[in-house]
Amino acid sequence: MLPHQSSYTLLGVPVISGFTSRRTNKNENWTRRFSIIKNNHIYLFKSRREKKPEEEISLFGAEAERDRSGKLNKDFVVSLKPHQSLLSEDHLDLIYYFATDSEASITDWLVSFNQEIEAAESESKIFGTNIQVACSKRTDGLLVPEVVEQTIEALLDPELHYLEIEGLCQIAGETQQMESIKNRIDYGMVVDFSEIKDPHVIVGVLKLYFEQLKEPLFPIELYEEFQKCLKIQNNDNKLIAIKETLKKLPDENYDTLKYLLDFLLRVSTLNETNKMDVTKLSVIFGPTLIRQENTSSIENIESTSFQEELIRILIVNYEYLLFNDLDNEELDQNNFQSKSGIKTRVMAIHPYTAQGKYQISFTKGQIITVLKKDKSGWWYGQIDEETKGIFPSNYTTEITRLGQFNNISQETEYVSELTIDSARKSNQELSEKLNSFKQKSGVEGRNALEELLIEVLYEMKMLKIQLALERSERIKLEEKFIDLNKN
Questions:
Q1: N or C terminus: which one in the chain shows less Cβ crowding within 10 Å?
Q2: Residue 449 to residues 138, 439, 485: CA-CA distances in angstroms?
Q3: Of 202, 206, 176, nearest to 84 (Cα)?
Q4: Is the pTM higher than 0.70?
Q5: Residue 481, CB-side half-sphere exposure with 13 Å CA sphere
Q6: Which SMART domains does this UniProt record tie to the protein (predicted)?
């Protein structure tokens, strides 16, 4: 079995308990154990007095049935086969056998096994349910299924450049691996998508989730209304109609659509490299996200054309359709400060190039004042008086809040230290010079320090640290530099 923390201490009433004899197809020796079924597991104790189970077996996705082979030297036996995704590679064929001393008792155990197996599936299942089910399992209030958030975050990792891979979203991932990941998620297990090295598998899991939704991302009751929107001839009026219809989506569907379309937009902007333009993405995701019931073959053809066209329009006009009132004069920093008057500032940890007219571009290290946060992960911010727009918050890190320090000097010193530290980490030459300075003294050390300060000033200028430059930090550093030369 895969190693995991014991779940025995979790609250839960035993479904059944008592002594059973236990063996496996790997070890033919029968051992008598006190057994308890609860919390979607069977727990085995050496005695009734033991507080910690000797062994626990997950029932997520397991199969239990009577064994009547007569080969086990026992008359009343239940076989239990754990799901393969929960087993190590060298135990994929593992089968447990549990025996009791009567027909009545073994029947009770079999019923209890199947009862708990069914309960385990209904409690943790994500695939094949409604999107509201997945969102309800979150504790952070984000109305996007974790599997959607985690797969997209893994694909957007700036260090891995997955979006540049040719055929992303089109090339199929390895089916067995995708099915294993799906089962692990459905059985309540944590999947770290950053450890999955095949981006096609990650995209495959994302598509599989939407394909298997019980109710499609676009609710069936809005299908005809979206169709009517696309029949409007005037493009501006068409977009207005689509935008108003999108507002009728349930909150979970709306936020998830926004999250997904942002990803598809980013993929499409790199189509010269990945060969995945808006048309191809619409063909792939249209029938997955938009479906209707009981259609004829002719209707299916018409439906496919409609599905692809709607997704295409949504990707191309993503910001206008899914970010409300971005051109509204009310989007001013004074209207989005908190009750305490404190505003959040973030520093870019990765460069970002705007993908649309409502977005802002920034370089690594640039400071952005946050004016509004959105649950989708897109925040509205300001770099200077003329540069405002939305940006992906996962490309930034919060550094401080205005009003947190007693004076401007403390603020600038904090940001300068943060910036210099960042520069040291990202610039190997600068780090080497710093180490060299630490080992020198006298004139040689002073010269090394001068060189280091020049390098720091250059890094700060290149990183465009607005606070440091605009609030006299540059003057302070230059004065220190002049004093050093005088000495």
A1: C
A2: 51, 11, 11
A3: 176
A4: no
A5: 15
A6: PH, RhoGAP, SH3
